[in-house]
Amino acid sequence: MKYSLVTGGSRGLGRAICIKLASMGIPVIINYQSNQAAAEEVRDIILASGGQASLMKFDVSKQEEVTSALNSWEKEHPDDYIAYLVNNAGIRRDNVMFMMPDNDWHSVIDITVNGFFYVTRALLPKMMSRKHGGRIVNMTSLSGLKGMAGQTNYSAAKAAIIGATKSLAQEAAARNVTVNAVAPGFIETDMTRDLPQDELKQLVPMKRFGKPEEVAELVGFLCSDSASYITGEVISINGGLY
Ligand code: NAP
Q1: What is the pTM of this model?
Q2: Is 89 in the pocket of ligand 1 (CB under 6 A)?
Q3: Which of 3, 32, 118, 154 is catalytic?
C-alpha cells in the first residue's frame, strides 16, 4: 500500500493537506512536533469521514528522531511504502538581520532546510526503487521567491528549498518520482495570525488571504495522476501578489 507523509500535518496548511490527501483515498501519516491534541483532531476528522490516518511524532530538524520514527514505521509496514511526501513543517522567526539572534537564524534554517533533507533522504531509496512513481511536494513561500524585509532567515531557507526541489527533480525523474514546490503568499493560519492582516490584505490583488484548503487543492493535484509529467516546478498560490 502507498502511504503519504505530511510533515507539520497537525495545523494550518498541513492539516488541510492531510484531509485533502485522505479524501483522495491515500492513507495519511500526520507528522507533528509537539501539538498532539491538534494532530489527533486531524486524525479523527479523517477517520470519521472514512479515510485512513495515523500519527507520527518527530522534530524534522532532529535527524535521530526522524530516522527512528521512519525506521519503526517501516518495520511495522514491511509491504508498504511512503510514496507521497509533503515537506510542509516550517516556522517563522522574523527580525531585521542586524538584530537577529543566532537561534532565530539557525532554527528556521534547521527546520526548513535540514528537515527537508533528513526526511526526504530517508524516504527516497524506497520511492526510487519502486517504479510506481512517487510524489514530493515542498512548501516554499513567496518570501523565498522575492525576499521580504524582516525575513532573511525565512527567505534564505525557502529559497534553498526551491534550489533543492529543482536539483532533486532532475535526480529522481528517471525513477518516476516528481518533485515540485508550492509557494503560497499570505494564507490564514496560526503562522500569519499575528500579522497586520487588514493592512496586508490591501497589498494582495484579491484583497484577501488564502485559505489552507485552497493550498491543499494544489498539493492534492500535484500528488494526483493528473500531474504525472510536472516536475521541478515552483507553483505560486498567492491571490496575485508577486
Ligand atoms: P503553522 O500553522 O504555524 O503550522 C506549522 C506546522 O508545522 C505545525 O503542524 C507544527 O507542528 C509543524 N512544525 C513546526 N516545527 C516543526 C518541527 N520542527 N518538526 C515537525 N513539525 C513542525 O504554519 P502554516 O502556516 O500551516 O505553514 C505551513 C508551511 O507553509 C510552512 O512551511 C510555512 O513556512 C509555509 N508557508 C505558510 C504561509 C502562510 O501564509 N501561512 C505562506 C507561505 C508558506 P505542531 O502543531 O506540533 O507545533
Answers
A1: 0.98
A2: yes
A3: 154
